[in-house]
Write a structure and sequence with these properties.
Elements lengths: L4 H18 L6 H25 L1 H9 L9 H6 L9 E8 L8 E7 L7 E7 L14 H9 L3 E5 L11 H15 L1 H4 L1 E11 L1 H11 L19 E5 L30 E6 L7 H14 L4 E6 L12 H20 L7
Parallel strand pairs: 3-4, 3-5, 5-6, 6-7, 7-8
Antiparallel strand pairs: 1-2, 2-4
């Protein structure tokens, strides 16, 4: 309900109106209590909707520039189900390794062939490293970027308890290597590769972005250039991996890697996230800003909880607008010679 408060409020109002029409609820104390409860829910939904409306301002303020005018406002409020546009084609379950379902990816691109190689976003799902799937989160983002001419690669990675750390990161690096190997076949531009993730996927995305050339993440394919041009983290967990201490030889947190050569980074987090606190994103943004010469932007979404990218909600539409703005601006500022 946190992402669709207006829809929830309309549902309560309609159900209550039918109940009042069918029966005199005020005739009994139970009916009066039910009406009061419905009224309280409507007021709560109105408060949540007011917080949703602050998302665009928060994104715009963090980026330091206005976003594009709103599009499909009522669709995002009343029908926030992400649907793939007909102009976007999905290449399903392409293998990037021999690990079965855990090493499969989907590729989203325009059906019409591009005249030149397209920039690429590699997306990594969340799920605490125990679950999740490449088709669950951020679909609205994937579809929008594909419509804008990007190629989006949404990858699964092997999960616990079958594998642990650093195998998850190795899978991400394998997916990056797949982009390089298949650039000609799918018209990809690896020099504009962006890595993006949600929750645990954001943890992976930031580690991958901060570990270019780390041979222990590239066993058997050490010669592949796995640098990325940008990194994006959505409601990410940025602490250490399960059971790993600070003295580990190979860090399991983005904080443990050298950030002096970090690419541009965008972090988006809900200030009410009760699963992964916004404090982690604040701390990581502070460390990156203190060491990296590239832009680092932290967007704190008022009232947002974990998983705000599951629907094409009004809040997430504002985030997607901000991501498009950040991508265009950051890539324009990175000289071609400095890209991967």
């Amino acid at each position: 309900m946190n992402e669709i408060p207006l829809l929830a409020m309309l549902y309560i109002l309609i159900v209550t109106a039918f109940a009042v029409a069918w029966d005199d609820l005020l005739a009994t104390w139970q009916g009066a209590v039910a009406l009061l409860a419905a009224g309280a829910i409507v007021v709560g939904c109105a408060i949540l909707q007011a917080r949703v409306l602050r998302a665009r301002r928060a994104v715009s303020h963090a980026l330091g520039e206005p976003l594009r005018p709103r599009r499909r406002v009522w669709r995002s409020r009343l029908l926030p189900i992400p649907t793939r546009p007909r102009a976007v084609r999905r290449f399903k379950d392409l293998p990037y390794g021999a690990g079965g379902r855990g090493q499969r990816l989907d590729l989203y691109a325009l059906r019409a062939p591009a005249q030149r190689p397209s920039p690429v976003v590699l997306y990594l799902h969340g799920g605490g490293y125990f679950g999740g799937d490449k088709r669950w989160e951020s679909l609205a983002l994937m579809y929008r970027l594909a419509l804008s001419g990007w190629v989006v690669v949404s990858a699964n990675y092997q999960l616990r308890p079958r594998v642990g750390y650093p195998e998850h990161v190795i899978d991400v690096k394998r997916a990056i290597a797949w982009v390089h190997r298949n650039s000609d076949r799918y018209g990809l531009d690896p020099s504009s590769l962006v890595v993006c993730g949600s929750s645990a996927g954001a943890h992976l995305a930031l580690i991958a972005a901060l570990s270019p050339g780390e041979r222990r993440f590239q066993p058997g394919f050490e010669d592949v250039d796995t640098r990325v041009a940008l990194a994006i983290g959505l409601y990410g967990y940025y602490g250490r991996y399960y059971g790993r201490g600070e003295s580990e030889d190979l860090p399991s947190s983005p904080f443990g890697f050298d950030a002096t050569a970090a690419p541009p980074v965008l972090l988006v987090h809900g200030d009410r996230d009760s699963y992964t606190s916004v404090e982690g994103a604040r701390a990581l943004a502070h460390q990156l800003k203190s060491r990296s010469k590239n832009p680092v932007v932290l967007v704190e979404l008022p009232g947002a909880q974990h998983g705000f990218d599951l629907l094409a909600s009004e809040r997430f539409e504002a985030v997607v607008d901000g991501i498009e703005t950040f991508l265009a601006r950051a890539l324009a500022r990175v000289p071609q010679a400095q890209r991967p």
